[in-house]
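#onboarding

Welcome to the new folks! Below is a worked example of what a typical request in this channel looks like: someone posts a single protein sequence, and someone else replies with the predicted structure as tokens. Don't worry about understanding the tokens yet, we'll cover that in week two.

Example request:
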Amino acid sequence: MRPIRLEMKGFTSFRDRTEVNFEDADLFVLTGPTGAGKSSVIDAITFALYGSIPRLGGNSVEPVISRGMLQMSVRLDFAVGEKRYTAVRMAGTKSEARLEDEYGNPLAGSSMGLKGKVEEILGLSFGHFTKSVVLPQGHFANLLHETASERHKMLQRLLGTELFTRLAYRAGQRKDTSKALADNMERDMAQLEAGGITPGDLKAARRRAQELFGLEKRIRETQPESDALNDRALSAKQRGADIWKRLDLLSAVRPPEGVQELAEELAKGKRGIDDAKKAHDEAADQRLRLEEALHNLPKEADLRQRLRRYHDLAKERTERDRAAARLEDARTVLQAAQAVAGKARTAAEAAEQALRAMEDEHSAYHLASGLSTGSACPVCRQPVSEPPEMEAPAEMEEARDTIEAARQDRISADADLANTQADASAREQSLKDSQGRVTSLEAELKDEPSREEIESDLAQVTATTGELEEANRNEREARKRLAAAQQTVSDLEGDGERAWQDYDKQRDRLAEMQPPAAKREDLAVAWNDLTAWSKKQAKEQRTLHEKTEAERKTAESTLEELRGAIAEWCSQAGVVVAHGEEPLTACGREQGRQAGEVKRIEQGLESMEQKRAELKCLRRKTAVAADLARHLGSRNFVQWLMDQVLNQLCVGASKELLKLSRDAYSLELDDSNNFVVVDRNSAGARRPVKTLSGGETFLASLSLALSLSEHLADLTVGRAAKLEALFLDEGFGTLDSDTLDDVIQAIEELGSRGRMVGVVTHVKELAESIPIRYEVTKQGNRSSIERIEA
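Example response:
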């Protein structure tokens, strides 16, 4: 697990929203004065993941909510391998807990769900996380310097060896359970033997099954004779029933009444059809003759079209005469308008000449009236400083009014003249158009018959059409009379057909007896023949029925004797045959029951054998569980296990110390399971760990703590977790300067090995030696963090 970004608000002294970016921070330090909130950053990471904080204990979160605030929230973006996740927790007035993947998909939505999913992803419980990722402050050297017994107690607390006590209890429970199952199985086996599950019972059951098989074989050997007798009896019985059916059919043959009367009515109706058909043909011939005559005459539509053109010509000639009169009127009006317009133009010209004469007479006023200040004088061409004031002559104003009235009269007269000319032109064009249409129609009618000839042909067509309509009515009346006669015959033929259907129906019932063929031309004769034949056949069928009855009785008597013998065989074999049941069915049922009995005993014996094997296995499990409970309950096992764990931790710590000390030191265990250091710079001399200097002791303790954090998950839950980050919260302030240099080199070595390493310290020399620093400061009751990179 590698943290990527941490966001806090209202958490301990981080009252304001505070963000810590861990991107690319493989080795970093959280530094600042004591009480600034350095360890709170690690607590926030732990709280976001598990909802708990180690130093508080339990699940209470109230102490970490900033004093005086009602709400706090923590968000952690972290990576596990190549995958990224976001954990969010809120506490106070509003509670929330959720976990999402890098795509925003929800993975958990409750506090317990978030904790469980984190344990699944990281492979670490809360306890393991706080011992393997966040190394406990002040406990590095304890495990190194404790006595063997105290070291074992510490490991038992860390690893939770109470599990073995629970395992011993569970082993005892399993022993008791296995023993109870074995005792129950022995009782079941005894009950099976008492229920007839023995080899002797199986032999007797198989012998009985063989006897039943012999009985079935004996019955089956009689089956062909029994089937033949039964078939003969059934066949005779069926033939007798068939004969009775034929006798019933023969006795039902009776001709219907009124057959002769029906034939006479039918003949009369056919004669009526002939008469009606003759009248219809005569009417049709008359219609055809009139249709041919009408066809040879001109078409009525053509005649009426020709008359319509004569009518159009007369109408157009009248319209032409009217147009000529209208044109003459328009020309008269035009002459009058031309005279009025000429007079108006003459009056306007006279008024203008009079005005020009007055302007010449009053030229001074005329010139002065056009001057303005600054304009050039028309006489001297000098600028006018002030126009002269002159009173206009009264006669000039009257002359101007006269000119304006004459102009308006001339404009009005010109307009009337233009309108009159346009009207005359339009009437002249209308006359030309009308004359053109008259000429066109006269040309079309030039080669046509006269109007009188056309009217004569139209009268003849009208008369012929009337005669044809009368002929059509006569033909329709004749067709109706023919249809009525045909319907009458059809109804009679329907009665005859139904009579023949009755005949065919009764004859078809007798088809298998091959009745005489019907003479379809005479229904009465056909019925007489069928009746005589049916009486003869009835006598022959009665004789045949007597012979069939005798054959049936003989077959049934013989079959009954054979069935009696089979029943005796079944009785002797102890097979009960129910009333109406076939002996083979009863025998088969008894065989099935006996086969079930054989199978029951065989399965019982097989179960007995299986139970013997299971009983043996249960007794063995009981013994193993008893031994396991005894061994796990012994202190020697825990002692042995702690020795194995300590040896494994020592091997791991020795590897870490070799790396941190640059191959100078390694660790081993002596015969009393106490740690000794191997000084490789002194030819591998072995000496107690208490002889190490302060810096050397720190390196050895740190190596042991790293080994413990690396192997803790495997030693406790058997599930490996990849520890990608490590946070060291140790009291570095107690180290001297030389030891501190060694510690700085060791931490730099840790940071170069692919694992994120975070150091919590207020030691300035250590903080400044690490390239990425998160400086935690506090002012009043508010803390803040700043990332500084060297």
